[in-house]
Specification:
With 316 residues, the protein is α/β, with parallel strands linked by helices. The chain has 9 helices and 10 strands. The protein has helices spanning 2-25, 28-38, 51-67, 133-153, 173-180, 217-223, 248-253, 284-297, 299-303; strands at 79-82, 92-99, 104-114, 119-120, 129-130, 158-165, 187-193, 206-209, 231-234, 258-262. It has an 8-stranded mixed β-sheet, with helices on both faces. A two-stranded antiparallel ribbon has the order 4-5. The protein is globular and about 65 Å long. Bound molecules: zinc ion (ZN).
Length: 316
């Protein structure tokens, strides 16, 4: 009895320390400021090839620098510059940084969100900027906050790559280029975060994972949240083909357990791809709890004690 009480006390204390740390590192102010800035009118909807997306890239670079990420191997800066095809002369750029793994550096875990959006579109009388606050300033913010958290935690045995993809909305070009720059066999998991700005179909403290049954990624995440009120669910919109509609699809086709985490009620989200996807419509407490839950749920994959099963390869 005494021993049990003592064990419980230790467990309680370690959980308290854990909770305290994450609350200090991923704060509401931090998350709020990033989403607000990325979705501000100043960034003009972050359209690919526009000055607005350049501003967004600069912001992400400055955050990566403050956090202390390294550029990827073989790169001098965080910008991974490329072209859409051989005839297009306009540069595109992902923004990517990493925290090298301690004992399993060759094994990579990717955290991503796309930072491009639709730019200026046909709106209404007063607005034509597609701010993309939910899509995907929310996911980009989550990716940055996770980088900040794991850098402070400093216990990743695997190498963690954090990447803001460009040109998702015009065909996933950023993710395609990124996947060619590494060996997909080295990537043990990908957490792509897309639209976590509003309450999910399952209520608060819940998100869904696309392609849930294609690997045991979701089960691992859920196991790590035991005792927490947050739950991950299989994608409730299978007809929408969301697994193949975001940046996880490229690496998933190459066999990587690459999944997208989202809370969007896509079947009735009237703000989706309109000028009304603005900061004011977001539930920032829900975003904060989702980010923290991703941080906790990924921990055994980050530390190298859990490895999700591979997804059957579609492309050789
Ligand atoms: Zn999106």
């Amino acid at each position: 009895m005494k021993k049990t009480l003592y064990t419980l006390l230790i467990l309680f204390c370690t959980q308290q320390v854990w909770a305290q740390d994450i609350d200090k590192i991923i704060t509401k102010d931090y998350v709020d400021r990033l989403i607000k800035t990325l979705s501000s009118d100043d960034m003009q909807g972050r359209g690919t090839f526009t000055p607005g997306i350049d501003k967004a890239a600069s912001l992400i670079e400055s955050e990566f620098k403050k956090i202390g990420l390294e550029p990827l191997d073989g790169e001098k800066t965080y910008r991974q510059t490329f072209f859409k095809d051989s005839t297009d002369k306009r540069p595109l750029f992902n923004v990517a940084g990493m925290i090298r793994g301690k004992s399993k550096a060759a094994e990579i875990v990717v955290f991503s969100g796309h930072y491009d959006h639709l730019g200026i579109i046909k709106g209404n009388d007063t607005d034509s900027i597609a701010n993309g606050a939910d899509d995907d300033a929310s996911g980009t913010t989550a990716m940055i906050a996770l980088a900040k958290y794991y850098k402070k935690l400093n216990n990743n045995e695997r190498t963690l790559i954090f990447v803001a993809f460009t040109a998702e909305e015009i065909g996933g070009f950023g993710a395609k280029y990124f996947s060619k720059k590494l060996n997909p066999d080295d990537v043990v998991a990908m957490f792509n975060i897309e639209m976590i700005g509003k309450e999910s179909k399952f209520g608060k403290n819940a998100a869904f994972i696309t392609g849930y049954d294609k690997s045991d990624f979701g089960k691992i995440l859920q196991k790590n949240l035991a005792g927490s009120p947050f739950t991950f669910h299989p994608d409730p919109y299978p007809r929408q083909n969301l697994f193949y509609r975001s940046d996880n699809a490229t690496l998933a086709a190459l066999g990587v357990p690459a999944h997208t985490i989202s809370t969007d009620q896509i079947d009735k989200d009237e703000l989706y791809h309109t000028v009304k996807d603005e900061y004011e419509t977001l539930d920032t407490d829900n975003i904060l709890s989702t980010i923290k839950s991703i941080a906790k749920s990924a921990i055994t994959i980050v530390k190298g004690t859990d490895t999700p099963t591979r997804i059957p390869r579609l492309i050789e």
